[in-house]
Amino acid sequence: MKIAVASGKGGTGKSTFAANLALSLSKSNDVVLVDCDVEEPNLHLFFDAEHEESEVTVPVPVVDPGKCTFCGKCGDFCQYGAITVLKDDILILMDLCHSCGGCRIVCPYDAITEVPRVIGKVRDSQPDEHLRLVTGVLNEGETHAPVVIQMAKALAGSTPTPAGAVFEHQFRELVCSMADVTIYDSSPGIACPVIETVEGADYVVLVTESTPFGIHDLELAIGVVEKLGIPAGVVINRSDGLDEMTEELCRRHSLEIIMRIPFDRRIAGVQNRGGLFSQDMPEWQGRFTDLYHHIRETGGGGA
Ligand code: SF4
Ligand code: SF4
């Protein structure tokens, strides 16, 4: 089963929830946790272990000046404005290139070839016998987050490898390469990387907190999962028991509140030390396991 963990905004405790869920479920399942927050991956801070890594590349065009006639066809074709053809020169802005390959196809003189450009990496580690962590890392300044997310999900074995992509590193044989549960930790917000992350998931857990900003951003995130038609439930983090507005929003969207994590000094203390409260407070492992069974029974029917 594939569970995506998302939130409309940062700072709700989404990654902490994903890490606690993964740790708890790994006591009785093979779990792969995929850090899809590729611009700021942080799950490795909870699960420190040696990793192997492979670069993620995208194909970008290069022009053979000996063949180019500066006819301008490639520039006219590129809808992203990545190619400017001058009278006797041609400029390619790699940051704008979406690696569609169209300019190579339309060039009548075979002047364009493609070379790989490194945009990030994927890392694979096994912090525990039944827990594997796959991390996508986007290089600073790059904009192709969805490509790195696709590669991380493919490395996790939960989606096919994207067309034309190869892992340059031969990853070692992993103990739990076939997971019972795959957990995708998404980036916050509702932009393209979030869509790429939750796509293909059997269930989405939306982590929120009962503040006016939290409720506003939760509503945006609910809109995304409703559009994608993926079953979802809400986790209220740092709940002080006064969650009426969140409850009302969930009622309006027929969404179940599947867990409340209270505002609790012990939990805050563990988290301030960078720990996972389900480790220090083992009663939570049972709660996360019950939550998983509830998700299976009520929403995410995936294998
Ligand atoms: S289409 Fe080919 S020949 Fe024409 S400007 Fe582009 S690279 Fe040069
Ligand atoms: S590969 Fe596509 S996006 Fe990139 S420069 Fe060529 S036409 Fe533009």
Quick structural overview:
By secondary structure, this protein is of the alpha/beta class.
Structural overview:
The strands form 2 sheets. A 9-stranded mixed beta sheet has the order 3-6-7-2-8-1-9-10-11, with helices on both faces. The protein has a two-stranded antiparallel ribbon with strand order 4-5. With 303 residues, the protein is α/β, with parallel strands linked by helices. The protein folds into 2 domains: 2-56 and 120-298, Rossmann fold, CATH 3.40.50.300; 58-117, Alpha-Beta Plaits. The chain has 10 helices and 11 strands. Helix 1 crosses helix 10 and helix 4 (145-155) runs parallel beside helix 5. One iron/sulfur cluster is lined by residues 61, 77-78, 80, 82-83, 92, 97-103.
Keywords:
Rossmann fold, elongated, Alpha-Beta Plaits, 303 residues, two-stranded antiparallel ribbon, nine-stranded mixed β-sheet, alpha/beta, 11 strands, binds iron/sulfur cluster
